[in-house]
Design brief:
The complex is a heterotrimer of chains A (250), B (333) and C (285). Chain A is of the alpha/beta class and 250 residues long. In chain A, a hairpin with a 2-residue loop joins β4 and β5. In chain B, a hairpin with a 3-residue loop joins β1 and β2. Chain B is an all-alpha fold. Chain C has a two-stranded antiparallel sheet. The two termini of chain C are 36 Å apart. Chain C has 285 residues and is mostly helical. The longest helix of chain C is centred in the N-terminal third of the chain and has 31 residues. Classes of the chains: A alpha/beta (250), B mainly alpha (333), C mainly alpha (285). Chains in contact: A-B, B-C. Chains A and B meet through α1, α2 and α3 of A and α7, α8, α9 and α10 of B.
Chain lengths: 250, 333, 285
């Protein structure tokens, strides 16, 4: 398995609060990984550091062997990183199709085209339509994204994240705020996409059902550090992890 | 995007309007032509402003700075070389360069800082125009600017001394500018700018270098402001510092608010409304700014859609601004 | 050398006017998250009102200043309560548009009510005269302004650290939802803060009348410089605003000495440098 993302000794603090306290993590390709941990463990901060939303105070980050520690977010995305957001982050006033079209255009380097009509981008539009049918939103193609239901917006969020065919895709609490039915749909989609093999998913989650049904590998964080990592069965039996979760049922 | 009756009816209306505009010198006297020229100039000015505001989400209170650079640039050229083509081109280029330069300093900030900076930079240009007597003529401005003939090297020279002739120059230039802007907002670039407006972080994560695109939008808006400004000196034969003042920056703001931020044509409709209202108010009082301000306040409080949104399908046409401010950075989990 | 020190003193007194207006702007932003574009106009209103009471009606100087503070405080309250409050929670662009509209209204309003430019009224007797500083007579009034500025700085520190209202405001500033949840009347806090910030601007305007011309448009230069100060110091940062006011005031004075035509431009260059080198402001956290 190729090594996709590697962090070496990264640290991040906000004022006196240490969010990440020396994390060495390696994420190989082809293995659906879940990152879990109690609130404040640093999970989202880790994603922010990996994707370039934040810069680490110290340490280094590598993607496919290349140092990306100081690269801007859009440059990392160009290299194949992607993410979805915990707090819904779509383009509310663009149509559903346009939401997914943009990252595709960006990957094809077509965003700077100033005078040709958008509809002329046939290949990109076809690809966008394919993704929409993949996530089940094909019918809402021209609706403004802000008008979708919460669950559909989550699906769209996922669609935008996978649209540029990323190599590594972080999903930040993809099931947050969803009804059980919606959650099942999102998880099914994630599983299906993961099995296709083109994209490796890393999911940050609180919902243990989701984690144990999807993940092939689990990374446990606590207080800004890696507590444990391993296959689900191993983590389930890990005493330290159980203590951290204070008796939560696995 | 959508082939249907509303769209084709709109195209018919627009087509009719363009025909009327071309026939205007036959139908109306000098004063309506003069007014029409001013409306066209403000339309171009406002379209550039709205590319920045409605489409990219950046509110600039300093566009008059680039308007002035275009105006003074064209004037200086015309005073040296009486060639309207060179004057217009020169004014636009200098304004674009100024926008590029100031844009580099301004677009790297949050939207609030950006707005503050644009106000400051606009007034900086105003104070330069006011104080640099040797170059700009100070508060007397530049006078005696000729309505020079349109001389395109290799094609010949056309005199535009009469109001009718100059009107046609302004009309054709404006229509070309409007057409270019129309193509632009419907293009991938236009989509990218709107995405940046909707969610800067999402756009970044879609692989878009947000800052660079904002700079592009700012520069284009500056080019349009410069073009609008450059069309002014041959009309009035003078340029004075108030063209750079924030009260001038308020004009495209008001026109766009009145006509509608949500639609492509809004700024143009608004430019028309602007002059209609101003014409009326100025007959009763010299204190026009207080009314300008009052209308801005009323529109901001109650009627943010403007006139055009009543008629147009807002999802088709593009931008709508009612969202919250930038979301806070995601909480640490 | 003495000339330079002397000019520095002039810059210091200039800085205090800038400080008064920037302090109000900063406090309003810090609590309400609104950039009040019309803050320069409030400064101007303070000057006009004080001039009316002192220069036209002949009231004692201190009373004129006090009345002008109350008047502008009331104006600020009205602006917040009946206009700004209606657009909280929607795109911040509309707040900027609204306060921009206020500039246009107030700028013309003073022309309508008061007409054109006025003569400068006499300095109140007990503040008149000059002291020798660095070999030249330096107006006592300018020293008075410097003293007021420093007192305001100290006073604000005490206000926000030690008093009940100050701490209430601080709590609301950091988390308005939490403040509301524990029973703080957030709208009332907002109105009082806006009025307070307006009064600070008015103080600057009012205190300036014996030495600065009262004319339409004096708000313009002040708000531009206040913006520059805020950008340099970091928005919402009171300490940053104070230091930046000193920087801008003093450099402005030197600019007048060495680059008389372009002194405003000179300040812009400083701001541009700060923007390029440290865009979040010199004192941002």
């Amino acid at each position: 398995m190729t090594e996709l993302l590697k962090t070496q000794g990264i640290r991040k603090h906000f004022g006196s609060f240490v969010a990440i306290d020396g994390v060495d993590l390696t994420l190989p390709g082809g293995r659906l990984t879940a990152i879990i941990g109690p609130n404040g463990a640093g999970k989202t901060t880790l994603i922010n550091l990996a994707t370039g939303a934040l810069a680490p105070d110290s340490g280094a980050i590598y993607f496919k062997g290349e140092a990306i520690t100081h690269l801007a977010t859009h440059q990392r995305v160009r290299k194949g990183l992607s993410r979805s957001f915990q707090i819904m982050n779509i383009f509310p006033h663009l149509s559903v199709l346009q939401n997914v079209l943009l990252p595709i255009l960006s990957r094809r380097g077509r965003t700077l085209v100033p005078f040709s009509r958008l509809e002329r981008e046939h290949e990109a539009v076809t690809e966008a339509e394919r993704i929409l049918s993949e996530i089940g939103l094909g019918g809402a193609r021209d609706a403004p994204a802000g008008a979708l239901s919460h669950g559909d917006q989550r699906l769209l969020e996922l669609g935008i994240a996978i649209a540029p065919s990323p190599v590594l895709c972080f999903l930040d609490e993809p099931s947050a705020g969803l009804t059980p039915v919606e959650r099942a749909t999102v998880m099914e989609l994630a599983r299906r996409l993961s099995q296709r093999g083109t994209t490796t998913f890393v999911i940050v989650e609180h919902d243990m059902d989701v984690v144990f049904s999807l993940a092939e590998w689990i990374v446990v964080m606590n207080r800004g550090q890696l507590l444990a990592e391993g296959p689900p069965a191993e983590i389930r039996g890990n005493r330290e992890v159980r203590e951290v979760y204070l008796g939560e049922e696995f | 995007m959508m082939a249907g009756r509303p769209a084709s009816r709109l195209s018919l209306l627009v087509g009719l309007l363009v025909v009327v505009l071309f026939l205007l010198p036959l139908l109306a006297g000098r004063y309506p032509l003069y007014l029409a020229i001013q409306i066209l100039i403000l339309s171009v000015f406002s379209l550039g402003f709205n590319l920045l505001f409605g489409y990219t989400g950046l509110l600039s209170f300093g566009q008059a700075g680039f308007f002035a650079v275009g105006a003074y640039g064209c004037a200086k050229i015309l005073l040296a070389v009486p060639n309207l083509f060179l004057g217009l081109a020169g004014g636009v280029i200098v304004a674009g360069a100024a926008a590029l330069l100031l844009g580099i300093l301004s677009v790297r900030h949050t939207r609030i800082y950006f707005s503050m900076l644009t106000l400051a930079f606009g007034m900086m240009i105003f104070s330069i125009a006011w104080k640099w007597r040797d170059f700009t003529g100070g508060d007397d401005g530049l006078v005696g600017i000729p309505r020079a003939p349109l001389t395109i090297p290799g094609l010949g020279s056309l005199s535009v001394a009469t109001m009718e002739r100059y009107y046609y120059v302004v009309l054709i230039v404006s229509l070309l500018a409007i057409l270019a802007m129309y193509r632009l907002v419907r293009s991938p670039l236009g989509l990218t700018l709107q995405a940046i407006r909707d969610s800067e972080s999402r756009a970044e994560f879609a692989g878009v270098p947000v800052r660079s695109y904002r700079l592009a939008a700012f520069t284009i808006a500056g080019l349009y402001a410069g073009l609008a400004g450059a069309l002014l000196p041959p009309l009035e034969n003078t340029v004075t510092p108030p063209v750079a003042h924030w009260s001038t920056s308020a004009e495209p703001v008001l026109a766009t608010l009145m006509g509608g931020i949500h639609t492509f044509g809004g700024p143009i409709v608004g430019a028309f409304l602007f002059f209609m209202i101003k014409d009326i108010i100025v007959r009763f009082t010299e204190y026009w700014l207080i009314w300008l301000g009052a209308i801005v306040v009323v529109l901001t409080l109650g009627f943010r859609g403007g006139v055009a949104s009543i008629f147009a399908n807002r999802f088709l046409s593009g931008p709508v601004i009612t969202r919250q401010s930038e979301p806070a950075p995601p909480p640490a989990t | 050398m003495d000339n330079i020190a002397f000019q520095g003193l002039i810059g210091l007194s200039l800085a205090m006017y800038l400080w008064l207006i920037s302090a109000g702007l900063t406090i309003i932003f810090g609590v309400l998250r609104i950039v009040n574009f019309a803050h320069g106009s409030l400064f101007m209103m303070g000057a006009y009102l004080a001039f009316t009471f002192y220069g036209l009606l002949g009231l004692p100087f201190w009373l004129a200043v006090l009345l002008s503070l109350l008047g502008v405080g009331l104006l600020g309250f009205v602006m917040e309560r009946f206009f700004l409050r209606k657009i909280y929670g929607i795109d911040e662009a509309y707040q900027l548009l609204l306060t921009f509209g206020f500039i246009l209204i107030l700028d013309d309003a003073v022309k309508i009510i008061w007409g054109g430019v006025f003569k400068i009224p006499p300095i109140p007797a007990f503040l008149d005269g000059a002291w020798r500083m660095f070999g030249r007579p330096f107006p006592v009034y300018n020293l008075f302004i410097i003293a007021v500025g420093i007192l305001v700085a100290l006073g604000l520190w005490v206000l926000f650290e030690k008093t009940w209202w100050g701490r209430l405001v601080g709590a609301t500033a950091s988390d308005r939802e939490m403040a509301s949840a524990i029973g703080v009347n957030v709208p009332w806090v907002f109105s009082s803060v806006f009025a307070f910030g307006a009064m600070l601007a008015a103080l600057g305007g009012a205190l300036g009348i014996p030495v600065r011309v009262v004319a339409p448009g004096i708000g313009a230069a002040m708000i531009i410089q206040a913006f520059i100060i805020t950008v340099i110091g970091g928005l919402g940062n009171l300490k940053g605003a104070f230091v930046s006011s000193l920087i801008v005031g003093i450099f402005s004075a030197y600019g007048t000495l060495f680059f008389p035509v372009f002194e405003l431009f000179f300040i812009f260059v400083i701001m541009a440098v700060v923007l390029l080198v440290r865009p979040q402001g010199l004192f941002a956290r």
